[in-house]
């Protein structure tokens, strides 16, 4: 047997009688003091096991409810990390293209300058 004692404060009235209420799995026995009612609940082993099962189910349910957002967050982080990797790869490729284009542009400008010199030297000859 398990005994649970609960304290209830009464406001502006006093309970004059005490009573014992019997249930299938436990009994409730209120005891009267001046401004406080003390209730003792006697719970059978079977009822205690039922309460323990309910508590275990509730704890499992709470764990699962907490686990789902953590898993969702981990999945979102994985997706975001994948996107970051893709964008970094694209950024690297684009920077390589920019470097190549700048080198090509410099070569073309050098060729253009050489051609301008040839044109001006040919104009002097004519």
UniProtKB/TrEMBL annotation:
InterPro entries per record: AtbZIP8/43, bZIP, bZIP_plant_GBF1, bZIP_sf
Signal peptide range in chain numbering: 1-19
PROSITE patterns membership: BZIP, BZIP_BASIC
GO cellular component annotations of the record: nucleus
Keywords noted in UniProt: DNA-binding, Nucleus, Signal, Transcription, Transcription regulation
Gene3D superfamilies the record matches: 1.20.5.170
Principal cellular location given in the protein's record: nucleus
GO molecular function: DNA binding; DNA-binding transcription factor activity; protein dimerization activity
PANTHER family documented for this protein: BASIC LEUCINE ZIPPER 43-RELATED (PTHR46324), BASIC LEUCINE-ZIPPER 75 (PTHR46324:SF7)
Name under which the protein is recorded: Putative transcription factor bZIP family
Organism: Lupinus albus
Taxonomic lineage of the native organism: Eukaryota, Viridiplantae, Streptophyta, Embryophyta, Tracheophyta
């Amino acid at each position: 047997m398990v005994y649970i004692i609960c304290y209830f404060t009464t406001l502006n009235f006093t309970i004059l009688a005490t009573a014992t209420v019997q249930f299938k799995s436990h009994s409730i026995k209120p005891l009267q003091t001046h401004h406080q009612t003390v209730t003792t609940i006697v719970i059978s082993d079977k009822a205690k096991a039922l309460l323990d099962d309910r508590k275990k189910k509730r704890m499992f349910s709470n764990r699962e409810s907490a686990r789902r957002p953590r898993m969702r967050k981990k999945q979102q982080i994985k997706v975001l990390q994948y996107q970051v990797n893709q964008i970094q790869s694209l950024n690297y490729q684009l920077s390589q293209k920019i470097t190549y284009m700048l080198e090509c542009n410099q070569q073309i400008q050098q060729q253009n300058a050489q051609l301008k010199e040839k044109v001006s030297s040919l104009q002097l000859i004519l």
